[in-house]
Specification:
single chain; mainly beta; Neuraminidase; Immunoglobulin-like; 4 domains; five-stranded antiparallel sheet; 2 helices
């Protein structure tokens, strides 16, 4: 097997393992910070200045012709694209004295007047003595290579190393701290400088002589860090060698008042920061978090202090930190330091190999404030020798973790697990630094063994923090049937995580305002699946919160309403329309299976009018328990009315049907016919038909009307008295037949009609004619009677 190929595969597998955790986002490509690429460039230091501008410094071997020299480069985000960085000006040399090695450079933040200071250690001085601390102030307009201000300064002439520098926010001052050996031990010293010089003559000037920071104990104090706070205060941190096998982190706060002896600058007493009694706590790194300039907590400022810790009970190192509120207006100086985390928290999680060289920075996003930690981690790499035997090599990488400090006075909250920053060249990446630039933009630098082809180089990567997931398709409201099994899988595209190479989101759910879901409902987050048997309750709404969380604990919540719906009764059979005649009893019992409750519960029934403005007849009664309509129909006019029959369950859900009841009534009828009549011309005609000619089944009083059979009015000579059923009038002296129509009508406008004829005859004959007519009629009558008998 080709060992090179096998080795490469092993690298890829380890890379996949290392890239997990709460990974920030790479913005653009990793760039090589140094222009000069020969030999090694190592030990970067970086700091944010202003207006998205940062300074990165490092030591470069043989570039100045004599050992290591210190070099720097300004970088900033591009104006047209804040996801890329660009160099500002050229790489520049920091030190002018080039004899021997210039090492361990550190750079301050922004000093009033567009300045910054760089300090470093010189291995051998002009006189052949060891280890001085030097400094150089630079000025920049942010658009070109910075210019040195004044000459290179010697801060401490001999036996000094590990210098750190900080600016005092809002002032022209910077403070340099360093360790100096003075037999029989090593102590921490400091000097304060004015970067603008006397009368702003651009010649930096020492404003205090060298003063001793650490206490007068016999223990060694090494590896200082110094941090500028508000109100002209600054704090020193260092390793205190309390015993041969144990180092602790100590601190001392000072305030520059501009006058008095240096002893009067101390604020309170010396404080032991690390609380562990196990092993060593070393290499402190600190950051000032200025919530004051965000308009928050005017009496407070905050800082974090991180360090590496190696326990005697373990072969691994870890990165730890504390979070502090500093109330600089308290009268009692010893009460001004308030440790929000009295016991240190662990910034690193890995227990594999050593975790070393921590750096900490304050990173802001639109949503939160974070402490961002970077450090050098370790991992094992599988290597095959020429005989394909497996061996392991320990290699280093750059790792990071993030903590939410938005709730300033509460313990910082870890955002996900550790992430690996140096993801491309994971062998030999070490000694990282981190600097915030602008909102949610920060620069991580480290020494990288593979960044170029000639030894170590300085790698820089612009990054942004993890983005919380977002809701892109809100989950729709859902319904669960009363007492039935419910299951719902919300769509996979409901949420989005826009971070590159992000892991699948983790889903949890709870009822709004509660920590859990209702007892009947369960949720399988990996399947996005809700399920359970809905309770047998009347319609109830549950507000369900779905939490989508990424590996950095970035979270978004979507809420939907889950309604347990009681199913209304169902109409199984229609109710037929009914008919009834006035004056009779009405009764109707509808079938028990006319309605059905899906939940098989008992139903109650009711009647009503479909028209809310109309009431049902008072005679119509209803017994819901027997499902019976009944009543005696009064004498009334015919009508048809609608009845709404409703079935309601125990949850007041109802279903209705409508049927009609038709009231029928018999119309008047003809009982006896009306005989034809004779009217003689010029003589008075009177005729009254009997009241039993017409009848009414319901004994209602009838009214009468009369007209000619063709619908025309009666002739003028003939009148009809409807109340007396009587015709009266003097007929004309002519021969004519009048076909008469008589109508009987009840109060409901029901009617019956019959016809008879009035025969009108002339009366202009002599008396004998009348006598003859009379005799003829008399004889006719006698004959009729005779025949009858």
């Amino acid at each position: 097997m080709n060992k090179t190929l096998v080795f490469f595969v092993s690298v890829v597998l380890i890379h996949q393992i290392l890239c997990g955790g709460c990974s920030p986002n790479d913005l653009g490509e990793t760039i090589e910070q140094n222009e000069h690429k020969n030999n090694d460039q190592i030990k970067p230091s970086s700091s944010y200045l202003k207006d998205n501008l940062a300074i990165v410094v490092w030591q470069s071997n043989l570039q100045d012709g004599s050992g290591y020299g210190v070099y720097g480069q300004l970088v900033k985000t591009k104006a047209e694209n804040d996801e890329e960085i660009q160099f500002v000006g050229s790489e520049f040399a920091v030190n002018t004295y080039t004899v021997s090695d210039q090492t361990d450079a550190d750079v301050s933040g922004y000093i009033y007047g567009s300045r910054f200071a760089i300090v470093w250690g010189n291995e051998w001085n002009e006189g052949g003595t060891c280890c001085s601390i030097r400094a150089q102030v630079f000025k920049t307009d942010g658009s070109s290579t910075p210019a040195a201000i004044g000459g290179e300064k010697t801060i401490s002439a001999s036996n000094s190393k590990n210098a750190k520098v900080t600016n005092l926010p809002g002032s022209e001052l910077f403070v340099v701290a360093y360790q100096r050996f003075e037999s029989p031990n090593t102590n921490i010293y400091a000097v304060i400088y004015n970067a603008s010089g006397t009368n702003n003559d651009d010649e930096p000037v020492e404003v205090t002589s060298e003063f001793k920071v650490s206490g007068a104990t016999a223990d060694d104090k090494t590896n200082p860090d110094v941090l500028g706070l508000l109100d002209n205060k600054f704090v020193f941190f260092w390793e205190n060698h309390v015993s041969e096998n144990q180092h602790k982190i100590s601190m001392q706060i000072y305030k520059w008042s501009g006058e008095g002896t240096i002893s009067t600058f101390k604020v309170g007493g010396q404080i032991t920061v690390s609380s562990s009694d196990d092993g060593d706590q070393t290499l402190p790194s600190s950051v000032h978090v200025d919530f004051y300039n965000q308009g928050k907590f005017p009496n407070f400022t905050y800082f974090a202090i991180a360090w590496q810790s190696s326990g005697s009970a373990s072969e691994t190192d870890g990165i730890y930190f504390k979070w502090c509120q500093y109330d600089y207006e308290k009268e009692n100086e010893n009460e001004q330091v308030n440790w929000i985390t009295p016991t240190e928290l662990m910034a690193s999680q890995s227990t594999v190999g050593q975790q070393r060289f921590p750096a900490v920075e304050h990173v802001q996003t639109d949503e939160k404030d974070m402490l961002s930690f970077v450090w050098q981690g370790q991992h094992n790499v599988t290597v095959y020798d020429e005989n394909n035997n497996v061996t392991y090599e320990i290699q280093t990488d750059v790792r990071a973790s993030f903590f939410d400090i938005t709730g300033q006075d509460t313990e910082p909250t870890r955002l996900g697990s550790d992430a690996t920053i140096s993801q491309k060249n994971i062998f030999g990446d070490s000694v990282p630094q981190i600097s915030a630039l602008t909102t949610d933009r920060f620069l991580v630098t480290w020494q990288d063994v593979f960044i170029d082809s000639s030894g170590y180089g300085i790698a820089s990567q612009l990054m942004s923090s993890n983005k919380a997931p977002t809701v892109i398709n809100p989950i729709e409201d859902q319904e669960a049937d009363y007492g039935a099994y419910f299951e719902y899988i919300f769509p996979s595209d409901s949420f989005s995580d826009d971070d590159p190479n992000s892991n699948p989101l983790e889903y949890t759910a709870n009822e709004k305002g509660e920590t859990e879901l209702p007892d009947w409902l369960s949720f399988a987050g990996s399947q996005r699946n809700f399920s359970g048997n809905a309770p047998e309750v009347c319609q109830t709404e549950f507000e369900i919160e779905v939490h989508a969380k990424d590996e950095c604990d970035g979270e978004v919540i979507d809420t939907f309403v889950l309604t347990v719906v009681n199913l209304a009764p169902k109409l199984e059979k229609d109710v037929a329309n009914k008919e009834v005649t006035v004056g009779n009893d009405f009764e109707y019992v509808f079938s028990e299976d006319c309605f059905k409750d899906p939940e098989l519960g008992a139903l109650t029934y009711s009647k009503s009018s479909p028209d809310p403005d109309t009431e049902l007849p008072s005679w119509l009664l209803f017994e819901q328990e027997n499902r019976k309509f009944y009543g005696n129909v009064p004498i009334q006019c015919p009508e048809t009315f609608n009845v709404t029959l409703s079935a309601k369950d125990q949850c007041d859900s109802s279903t209705s049907t409508i049927f009609s009841i038709s009231i029928e009534r018999y119309p008047p009828y003809v009982d006896e016919g009306i005989e034809d009549q004779i009217a003689l011309g010029t003589e008075l005609f009177e005729f009254q038909f009997d009241d039993d000619c017409f009848g009414d089944s319901h004994d209602s009083e009838l009214t009468y009307s009369s007209m000619l059979s063709d619908g025309e009015d009666l002739p003028d000579w003939l009148n009809f008295d409807s109340t007396k059923r009587k015709y009266i009038g003097t007929a004309p002296n002519s021969n004519q037949d009048l076909d008469i129509k008589v109508t009987a009508q009840n109060e409901c406008d029901q009617s019956i009609t019959q016809y008879f004829t009035i025969k009108v005859r002339k009366s202009d004959v002599n008396p004998s004619s009348h006598l003859k007519l009379f005799c003829s009629l008399f004889i006719f009558s006698l004959i009729t009677v005779f025949i009858h008998f």
